[in-house]
């Protein structure tokens, strides 16, 4: 195994275990708590490059009494020019004399046993003497050190003070990395910084960087695919119902359930893709107003959206009497003309509405998901995706799917209505239909690609 190994060290409660969780994309790694002394033992995890190469990371207990430790280390060999490593080994050989420094000893072993050190700094803390002592102890191990400035959001005002202090102790290569407000580009900077400090591991780290970039891009692509697919599923679904209130209500409820389930499924898969737990999520029921979906294709709004105008008084419709102007085809049909034969003729003009017209004649209606709900559905997924991409695996806050999203032309794709029209006129694209009849794959794929490009 060609390993590169890193010890993650730092003051108690600085966010070491959180850094491990975020880099490993593992919310279950170790124990994270807002109190000092949470991690009691060294625990490892790894980023695999291939079967024979991995970056091993070791979490360590927090340093608590570095002032006492440094004074012990520097009191050894007075007047003699003995280097840091010897001092550390000397101390470790006499550990029984220092029962109160057992945690610190674990950290010292990790310093000696690994190739490189991440020194995690809680930027919210003022630059105190104890940190100076910790850094001095680190320097005894003569390993390359990358200070990781954590809590970059809350500790922003201390950044300069910390940088100055680090420079005075000869630590010039640092990175900023917030475990909760995650930025993938910051993670890459850590590996790039490692490359500058470990020249002989440059190729190894190059491979790691490329792999992480690839994984990140693939995850994003899969996520986009899920979202675009959900939109086609929900946009195309069409339930047939008898044209009476109780039948419409019953079918509407079923339709709502199936779209909610489809969204829940998409959300679940998105969480899985980004390796978050299902219970990281709160409140994700898709909001719908009662009755909102009892719109059918022949409601005035929908027909307009389809480019169809209802013909004047006849539109109010007695029995079979719906006249339909198919704007595109420019044909007007009177109520009496809506016989099977004429419907057949109409079909040749506007083939895709044949079933609906037939249904209307037979006293049936079709239900579909209304535009506003689809917009919310779309924007909620986009918002969730944005959240997942910027969420560290050390986060505790629940992810919420917004119910009140501002919907405006700016945050919807420009061709939204066109996409919707395509979906609505291809019920065969939705597997949410009771009889799924997925055909016409290539057109569906084309729309899927278009939607993906909108994300
Ligand atoms: N907001 C924010 N909170 C963080 C960040 N990193 C860690 N925390 C929180 O800080 C606290 C301590 O984090 P841990 O990861 O347990 O710290 P540690 O250094 O491993 O602590 P010990 O094991 O006790 O030494 C937890 O409440 C974390 O949720 C960060 O970057 N931003
Ligand atoms: Mg810890």
Task: Name the features.
binds magnesium ion; elongated; alpha/beta; 3-stranded antiparallel β-sheet; binds guanosine-5'-triphosphate; Rossmann fold; 455 residues; 2 domains
Give an account of the 3D structure.
- The chain has helices at residues 16-24, 66-75, 84-93, 102-113, 129-140, 159-168, 184-197, 202-236, 245-273, 300-305, 340-349, 354-361, 371-389, 416-424, 441-453; strands at residues 2-10, 43-50, 53-59, 116-122, 145-150, 175-176, 239-242, 281-282, 308-310, 324-326, 331-332, 364-367, 399-400.
- The chain is of the alpha/beta class and 455 residues long.
- The chain has two domains: 2-197, Rossmann fold (3-Layer(aba) Sandwich); 220-453, no CATH class.
- Strand 5 (145-150), helix 6 (159-168) and strand 6 form a beta-alpha-beta unit.
- Helix 8 (202-236) crosses helix 14 (416-424).
- The strands form four sheets. It has a six-stranded mixed sheet, sandwiched between helices. A three-stranded antiparallel sheet has the order 9-10-11. Strands 7-12 form a two-stranded antiparallel sheet.
- The chain has 15 helices and 13 strands.
- The chain is elongated.
- It binds guanosine-5'-triphosphate and magnesium ion.
- The site of guanosine-5'-triphosphate has 24 residues, from helix 1.
């Amino acid at each position: 195994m060609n390993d590169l190994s890193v010890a993650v060290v730092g003051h108690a409660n600085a966010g070491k275990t959180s850094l491990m969780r975020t880099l490993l994309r593992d919310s279950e790694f170790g124990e994270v708590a807002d109190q000092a002394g949470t991690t009691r033992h060294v625990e490892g995890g790894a980023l695999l490059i291939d079967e024979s190469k991995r970056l091993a990371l070791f979490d360590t207990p927090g340093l608590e009494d570095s002032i006492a430790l440094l004074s012990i280390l520097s009191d050894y060999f007075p007047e003699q020019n003995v280097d840091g490593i010897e001092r550390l080994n000397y101390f470790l050989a006499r550990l029984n004399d220092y029962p109160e420094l057992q945690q610190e000893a674990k950290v010292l072993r990790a310093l000696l046993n690994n190739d490189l050190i991440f020194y995690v700094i809680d930027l919210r803390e003022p630059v105190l003497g104890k940190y100076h002592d910790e850094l001095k102890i680190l320097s005894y191990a003569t390993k390359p050190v990358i200070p990781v400035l954590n809590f970059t959001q809350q500790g922003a005002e201390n950044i300069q003070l910390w940088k100055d202090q680090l420079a005075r102790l000869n630590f010039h290569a640092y990175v900023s990395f917030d475990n909760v407000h995650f930025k993938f580009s910051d993670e890459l900077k850590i590996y790039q910084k490692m490359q500058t400090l470990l020249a002989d591991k440059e190729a190894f780290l190059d491979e790691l960087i490329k792999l992480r970039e690839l994984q990140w891009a693939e995850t994003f692509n899969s996520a986009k695919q899920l979202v675009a697919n959900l939109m086609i599923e929900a946009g195309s679904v069409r339930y047939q119902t008898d044209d009476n209130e109780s039948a419409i209500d019953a079918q509407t409820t079923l339709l709502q359930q199936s779209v909610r389930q489809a969204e829940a499924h998409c959300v679940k898969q998105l969480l899985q893709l980004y390796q978050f737990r299902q219970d990281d999520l709160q409140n994700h029921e898709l909001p719908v107003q009662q009755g909102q979906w009892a719109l059918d294709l022949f409601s005035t709004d929908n027909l307009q959206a389809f480019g169809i105008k209802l013909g004047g008084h006849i539109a109010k419709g007695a029995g079979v009497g719906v006249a339909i102007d198919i704007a595109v085809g420019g044909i007007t049909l009177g109520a009496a003309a809506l016989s099977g034969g004429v419907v057949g003729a109409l079909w040749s003009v506007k083939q895709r509405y044949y079933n609906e017209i037939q249904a209307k004649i037979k006293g049936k209606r079709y239900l579909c998901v209304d535009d506003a709900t689809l917009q919310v559905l779309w924007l909620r997924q986009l918002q969730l995706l944005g959240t997942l991409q910027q969420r560290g695996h050390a986060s505790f806050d629940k992810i919420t799917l917004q119910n009140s999203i501002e919907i405006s032309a700016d945050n919807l794709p420009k061709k939204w209505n066109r996409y919707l029209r395509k979906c609505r006129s291809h019920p065969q694209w939705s597997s949410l239909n009771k009889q799924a009849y997925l055909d016409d794959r290539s057109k569906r794929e084309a729309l899927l690609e278009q939607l993906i490009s909108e994300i």
